[in-house]
Amino acid sequence: MGVTANHRTTNPQGDRHDRHTRHLCRPDRPGHDRCPDARGEAAFLRAESYSLTAREIVYALAAHLTYFGDTLTVSVVDPLTAIDAHMRFNGDLTAWTRGRHPADVAAIRARAEQIARNYFGTYFPAIPW
Questions:
Q1: Longest Cα pair distance anywhere in the chain, in angstroms?
Q2: What is the DSSP code string of 5-31?
Q3: Distance, CA of 12 to CA of 43 (rounded, Å)
Q4: With CB atoms 3.0 to 4.6 Å apart as the test, which of 3, 58, 65, 112 could cross-link to 47 if both were Cys?
Q5: What is the pLDDT of residues 70-106, one digit of tens each?
């Protein structure tokens, strides 16, 4: 599996799969007129067939959490393996949000971001939600 974490490089060619970058905000709500998304962010993780920003990594980990539970420790399921499996076999980074209360989505996303920070360390960037 050829996956590397590139915390300092950018993706000028735009080879990231933009179909995976639907944002979760609600433009119809006050204060959501400018929603943060992964489109302008640098790739953090590159694999043979995809590149992911830090935000997309959190979404992939959150998808794993909702489908399989909180098994993301190196001794149970390695987070990098979970990300790679999700991107290869599912690829939809936002399907896990459908039908969930916004508070539940925020809690799952916070846990996924915590897992990413613990796994990738201090180079994992802060994500404005």
A1: 44
A2: E-SS---TT--S-GGG------TTSTT
A3: 9
A4: 3
A5: 888 767 889 999 999 999 999 899 999 999 999 999 9
